[in-house]
Amino acid sequence: MSNAFQLPGVPDGVEMQPVNVDVDVDVDVDVDVDIDVDVDVDVDIDVDIDIDAIAVVDVDIDVDIDIDNVVDVDVDVDVDVDIDAVVEAEPGMMSRITSSLNAWLTANPNKVALLAFLTGSVGSYFIGKALDISQAAGDTTAHDVDPATDGAGLAVLINYMLDGTVASHDKWATFNDYVVTQNAAAADQSMLCTLILVTPNAAADAAATAWRWADTASAALEAQLVASEPSPGMFTVLSTYQFTGQDLPVKVAAGVANRALKQLAG
């Protein structure tokens, strides 16, 4: 299995490592003040969690209350961050994924534009790391794939999805194009979402770390994605979804999609 595209390597110094992470950070601050003097209340909470060298979740909350009357003040701050990147693989998965992505790239009418992402930060080095992850997670044939000659389609897609200049709509519409045209198995879709999650990218990691929304909003989107299958499809929904007028960071969206895919798999 090979193609005409040759992947570049990637500079040393950054590693993608296998992860099995399900982290919930729930910070609930309830301050009740009933007084008739001048009081300055400063609440500073700092939660710093290092997740297997992939991302740091840093939550810093400052609540400054100045009161000069008889008042009752109730301040409730609830922050929930969920990062789920459990790697699961099956024999032949990476061979199937790389082959189908190369076929998708070769036949894609936007191939010339997509090939610009071939030289992004994800090259043969990171593809090799992805193969190591897949091999360790159960794909006993993962190392049959040559990162340099077989990994072009995978590198293009991951680079495209993590590129900060590409609109969220375009990212998920392109992902959906691959899924539909190649009839990608749900397990393959989940593996690609996982690779988006665990591939280091400073901007994407920072955006995911900074994201804040309620558990109910995340759960509602997950349910919406499950209900959207098989038509119009969850990645079509993700391509237009916004939360309070904002696009989801790509790693947040990939995490929700992964959980929806696991629901569908039963």
Could you walk me through the main structural features you see in this protein, from its secondary elements to its overall organization?
By secondary structure, the chain is α+β, with helices and mostly antiparallel strands. It has two domains: 31-75, no CATH class; 93-265, no CATH class. Helix content is 45%, strand content 20%. The protein contains eleven helices and four strands, in the order ββββααααααααααα. It has helices at residues 93-107, 111-114, 124-136, 147-150, 152-162, 168-181, 186-198, 202-210, 215-227, 234-240, 250-265, and strands spanning 22-35, 39-51, 55-67, 71-84. A two-stranded antiparallel sheet has the order 1-4. Strand 2 (39-51) and strand 3 (55-67) form a beta hairpin. Helix 9 (215-227) packs across helix 10 (234-240). The longest helix is centred in the last third of the chain and has 16 residues, at 250-265.
